[in-house]
Design a protein that fits this description.
Shape: globular
Structural class: mainly alpha
Largest sheet: none
Helix content: 55-70%
Radius of gyration: 21 Å
């Protein structure tokens, strides 16, 4: 057991070091390494199963946003450079918020499919208000889970600063210039934020698995 644990720790440290090295090369260091656009260059390619990458999976997308948030915060924690922190903290928070929005919408949809109806007073899933999504989701998970109140506190806190998914997408300066809104940026401790991301992911992945499994059981029993 201990040898296996030491091996995993060694692999993890090696990956962190490689990731840290890669992070030091921002896009400015890549500028000029590729020539100018040709007249027939396109952004996307024609679908080709042998070469194209186009995986349309809700679970992969959700996991990608959550993992991206954790990876970006890991880079910040490993680096002492200010530009690393300033460059990656907004994308990390945006990815966290995007994950929470997607996983809650996904879970609600599968719970609704399982019940074949919606609760009275349920809202539609348009918009980006995390508090409203949480209110809908809580109808399905109930209040018996001891973590529900703790999760709700974090969702409320995040939604207070970014109720419409604009702050971490635009930043405070652009939000004011484009949307004419004065916004407040939260004070952030990167280590605390990293822990909360893992805790939120653990909770919502459990909820999402419960929603999808309940729907699968319904389909299999028909």
């Amino acid at each position: 057991y201990f040898l296996k644990r030491r091996y995993k720790d060694a692999v993890r440290k090696q990956l962190e070091q490689e990731l840290f090295v890669l992070s030091q090369k921002d896009i400015d260091s890549l500028d000029g390494t590729i020539g100018n656009l040709n007249n027939d260059d396109t952004l996307f390619i024609k679908r080709d199963d042998n070469h194209s990458c186009c995986i349309d999976s809700d679970l992969y997308i959700q996991n990608g946003y959550a993992s991206s948030s954790a990876i970006l915060l890991t880079l910040i924690r490993l680096s002492k450079k200010r530009f690393i922190r300033e460059c990656y903290i907004y994308p990390a928070l945006f990815c966290l918020r995007q994950y929470l929005e997607l996983t809650m919408k996904d879970s609600i949809l599968f719970f609704r499919l399982r019940r074949k109806m919606v609760y009275a007073g349920e809202l539609n899933l348009e918009g980006h208000d995390l508090a409203l999504l949480w209110k809908n989701l809580k109808m399905y998970i109930g209040k018996h889970d001891p973590q529900v109140n703790n999760i709700e506190r974090l969702i409320t806190e995040l939604n207070f600063f970014d109720s419409n998914g604009e702050l971490f997408r635009y930043g405070s300066s652009l939000t004011k210039k484009v949307l004419n809104k004065n916004v407040e940026m939260p004070h952030i401790d990167v280590d605390i934020l990293y822990d909360r991301i893992i805790q939120l992911y653990s909770f919502f992945e459990g909820v999402n698995s419960r929603a999808r499994n309940a729907f699968d059981e319904l389909v299999n029993n028909q």
